[in-house]
Design a protein that fits this description.
The protein is of the alpha+beta class. The chain has helices spanning 14-24, 79-86, 108-121, 124-130, and strands at residues 32-33, 36-44, 51-57, 59-61, 64-68, 89-94, 97-105, 138-143. 28% of the residues lie in helices and 32% in strands. It is globular and about 35 Å long.
């Protein structure tokens, strides 16, 4: 079984720089990025089985964490979303706290409500939705007890 606590980080670039800053400071630096909160999500690769870690903007709803699988409005889902769709058990870091969570994709009225909450945090999600025919998923992360 893949150890989600030993992830492979993204290729060099802004995401890797953001992630390193977040990890090295236990979230003191990097938790807030461009004025919005970010967490680190670790998923197991659906084909490789390798744990992969990604910094993502998040929201909160009744003790759960929310993510938007926008990929900037690309026609394809981001790899992290495909990974958690295949295996919904993930590892999450919010600031210095690391915990396991189960992920599910919101649907129907729940998705509509959570989408509105997430666009309050990052309004560009609405723009991204106009760029693609796919319905951009809203992911709900529930902490594992």
């Amino acid at each position: 079984m893949t150890d989600l606590r030993q992830p492979t980080d993204p290729s060099p670039g802004w995401q890797l720089d953001h992630l390193k800053e977040y990890v090295e400071s236990d979230g003191e630096h990097g938790h807030i990025w461009m004025g919005v909160p970010c967490l680190l999500l670790t998923t197991k690769g659906r084909r490789s089985g390798i744990a992969r870690r990604t910094p993502l903007i998040y929201g909160e709803d009744a003790g759960r964490y929310l993510l938007v699988a926008s990929k900037g409005g690309s026609p394809d889902h981001p790899a992290w979303y495909l990974n958690l769709d295949a295996d919904p058990r993930v590892l999450v870091q919010v600031k210095d706290e690391v915990f396991e969570a189960d992920a599910h994709t919101a649907t129907g009225a729940e998705r509509a409500r959570l989408w509105r909450e997430m666009t309050k945090i990052w309004p560009d999600y609405d723009t991204y939705q106009t760029k693609t025919d796919r319905e951009i998923p809203v992911v709900v992360l529930t902490r594992v007890s």
